[in-house]
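Researcher: Can you fold this with D-serine in place?
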Amino acid sequence: MASSQGYGDILAKIASLTSAHNEWRLRLSLNLIASENVMSRVALKAYISDFMYRYAEGKPFKRYYQGTKFIDELEVLTAKLIGELLGSDMIELRPVSGTIANASVFRVLAEPGDKAVIAPVQAGAHVSHTKFGTLGALAIEQVALPYDSESMNVDVDKAVKLIEEVKPKFAVLGGSVYLFPHPVKEIADAVHSVGGKLVYDAAHVLGLITGGSWRNPLPLGADAMTGSTHKTFPGPQGGLIAFTDKALYKAVGKTVFPWWVSNHHLHRIPATAITALEMKLYGRDYASQIVSNAKRLAEALASEGFNVIGEHLGYTKSHQVVVDVRKQGGGAKCAKLLEDANIVVNKNLLPWDPPEAVKDPSGIRIGVQEVTRLGMGLGEMEEIARLMAAVLIERREPSEIARRVSEFRKDFVEVKYSLDEKEAKISTILDLIE
Ligand code: DSN
């Protein structure tokens, strides 16, 4: 067995950085980034498999490689499970991220120079919807979907008028910040009437949809729904697309490989299947607890003196809470102070911010899906609000609050809404490697 032979310092550094991160994020801190989550132990075991070393270019049972007979079956089974949760038998699992899922659909729907109607980034669109991201790389022109900051939602009348004028190839709803359901039917009808398609980006709310706590956009008129499998849907990092439009499903399926992925990171597939099963069994309870927790956190933060967005609308119907922290020093400063107190959130543009304010926007965005998966409920949301107020309103020393956060976190380390590990009997490849 070789020793580290002079690389001991580097090895120690790699080990200590990795261990410190694991300890910090899994034991000591409150993870409130709205786009993250943790997998169950069963899904994690399924994830650490030989599939992580392998290639399977092409579609199940029509691959360009040998050695794929098990992933072929697993991929079909996973698509079936997800399809049952979403009410679609047209599921594409190969995009390795939500951004790649978006790129795959956008490029089939539009040629460079064509137009798409999409909310501006400060109104909640994901960067991949914008000229700064994937849309820009595809040279598709973004026409801003009219947005009403009062209702934190699309301005339907103005949006319908704009769609009739612009006649875009497609419109996009959904994205990275949204508290309330979007008007899917109205926008679908408008874009269909000019020959375009509606893409719904469900990256953030996929778990809420599969759990029945958010309206499924597919029966309401979305032609394709893109998503991530690791936000409110608590699986491994990855993307997917569900379709109602068969021609679009086929066209996108022909281009995911070879345009956007060569291999599609096969080890995420069995872990995604395990998570889909968990959502079938526990998704309804999980999703409704997420939404109740988000609302309670918003109310508790408001009681502590924060300017929580959307009070007149009940604050939120999703997993997210958005707070205007200009009075507390702005998004960048507040997110850093909270991080120093072991509370991890992200700074976020609010609808009135110009895109250039991205480095120091007005707000912070908070997501409760991960702490909910760890078993937190309404009482814990009130404690989180108190801890945040101690840092940002009472101006207590972040290191003092960090200790309180870690103490509070101690009781919430087990991943709930999970399959039973003994029943699942999944072994990892570590069991095969001596
Ligand atoms: N940018 C991520 C988010 O936090 O919403 C999604 O890709």
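Model: Folded with D-serine in place. The CA atoms of residues 60 and 129 lie 29 Å apart.
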